[in-house]
Design a protein that fits this description.
Blueprint lengths: L3 E3 L5 H9 L6 E3 L6 H15 L3 H4 L12 E3 L16 E6 L16 H26 L17 E6 L40 H4 L1
Parallel strand pairs: 1-2
Antiparallel strand pairs: 3-4, 4-5
Length: 204
């Protein structure tokens, strides 16, 4: 079972140690309370973007793995190369110095500034998590944090729309994979599940 941890708890580091040496994943509460209004606004813009017509969304089609930017439509991405394309839509963006303007949806003027703000919030939170991991692993202060101050973070929004067509053998919303980089922070809107975690005891 995935543990649920209060990020403001006095025992958060002890709970994180237990979670990441067993399950490898955890659900956190009280993490982004200070930015709740931003995330509520962001949820509306995300829905607005994915509700654009396919013709409009494909104007911002995925750049390829080198830049890793833009929109991917249904089945265009394969998290497992030898299996059918994933039944999801996604949009990737990065910090302003690594993001190209051609990928920002011009139909939604508020999208770009809020997306950049959400990225800054995510970067701040990731540094706070890394600081906690420094303490848990008894590393010198700054060992993780300083190495990530100029990191190349990638942000992604994903939609799993209803699918009424054929579902091929081994075709999923997103096949099994391991994320790149040091840390992945995942938000979900309206408690909609979007990730299945490998359980060592049950699956292993």
């Amino acid at each position: 079972m995935v543990p649920i941890i209060d990020f403001r708890s006095s025992t958060v580091e002890k709970q994180m140690h237990a979670a990441y040496t067993t399950c490898g994943f955890a659900v956190f509460t009280n993490v982004f309370d200070s930015w709740l209004s931003e995330f509520l606004d962001w949820q509306q813009l995300v829905e607005e973007f994915f509700n654009l017509s396919d013709v409009k969304k494909t104007k911002y089609s995925y750049s390829g793995v080198a830049d890793n930017l833009g929109y991917s439509g249904i089945t265009e991405e394969r998290l497992t190369p030898n299996k059918p394309g994933d039944l999801k839509e996604a949009f990737n963006w990065k910090s302003p110095d690594k993001m190209k303007d051609q990928y920002w949806p011009e139909e939604i003027p508020e999208f770009k500034p809020l997306a950049q703000n959400i990225l800054k919030i995510a970067q701040l939170l990731s540094l706070e998590f890394l600081y906690r991991f420094e303490n848990i692993l008894k590393l010198p202060k700054g060992r993780f944090v300083e190495q990530h101050l100029d990191g190349a973070s990638t942000m992604r929004i994903i939609k799993y729309p209803p699918h009424k067509g054929e579902i091929k053998q081994d075709q999923l919303r997103g096949n099994e994979h391991t994320d790149f980089g040091s840390i992945t922070l995942l938000w979900r809107f309206d408690d909609v599940s979007g990730l299945q975690v490998f359980d060592r005891e049950k699956d292993g």
